[in-house]
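LAB NOTEBOOK - FOLDING QUEUE
OPERATOR: T.R.
BATCH SIZE: 2
PURPOSE: Compare the predicted structure-token outputs for two unrelated chains run back to back under identical settings.
PRIORITY: normal
REVIEWER: second-year student, initials M.K.

ITEM 1
FIELD SEQUENCE / FIELD STRUCTURE:
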Amino acid sequence: MLLDNFSPMTGAASPNRVGVVNGGKDQHGRARREVVSAVTERNRSAKRAEKGRILDELCATTGWHRKHAVRALRQRQTVGPGEIEAPRKRRRRYGGTIKDALTALWEASDRVCGKRLKVMIPTLLPALEQHGRLRLGQADRDCVLSISPATIDRLLVDVKVAASGGRRRRAGFYSAIRREVPIRTFNDWNSPPPGFCEVDMVAHGGTSVADSFIQTLTMVDVATGSTECLPLVTREGSLVVEAINRAQSLFPRCGL
């Protein structure tokens, strides 16, 4: 179905552009596709002078820039009438060699973020090449030196996830609780008397947080520096309360 105010035979077009004919994104795009489809058939068999007039009509009808209209016509002629254009794939600029080099540089930098790694690459790259850790061609070397911090982070996403043992869990109920509980630093205690403690949980899972492993509840008296380390077989609320009560029996606590 063609637009009422556009005739593929005469090329007559309304002063109103297609973008305001029917309203709505879907109708807007559908109307333009119909116009391009109709104009393409005329453009196939038209001579050079007539092609220029057809292009002017298409620009006036759709509101497109002239170069964009030319690309739309060429694309339609390449695909052919009634066919659906396959989505264009973005050409990959950075291959596996670049990613492997960035991984080695990231490990050598002690796994810093992309912004810091970008600054360190000019120093780290020659050192790794000197010791035989990296062997890059001149083109790949220039690519690594010119890569942006954002691209570094994007290419190393899966490497960082694998190194951390999996994606982090989503912030949930306990994160909301932590936002409600005020946190004090060592400067906020105002010299309290003995009995007020800072508490922390230390996990002994190494580089993996999978399954269960030993946890240590560490309680430090702010005034005296006295420290109690209470082992827990797993991280569970009832065991934490039991450990705090056990520490309370050793010497009195006034607050946490």
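ITEM 2
FIELD SEQUENCE / FIELD STRUCTURE:
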Amino acid sequence: MTDLGGRAETARALGVHRSRITRWLEDEEPDARNLRKVEALRFVLARLLTVYERESALKWLTGFNAQLGDRRPLDLLLAGRVSQVVGAIDAEEAGSFA
């Protein structure tokens, strides 16, 4: 399971109850919709960790971003707009700023 600082933070980000995260970690599979969110979050966080240290990566993910029209990358990611978020990471890595 992707860790955004703790189970409560991960649950809040995914829009589920914290107990759901615990069940997913122990013995339950997420439903298809939440599985897509979890996989997208894992992918993007792994990509971010090639650019930033963990704390900075989490701040980037949850902060407002000029590359994304002053929206939070996490919000776009959970709305299924993974390619936009990855594009912003690529721009950060290349040193391009809006």
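REVIEWER COMMENT (ITEM 2): The chain has a mean pLDDT of 89.
FOLLOW-UP: none requested
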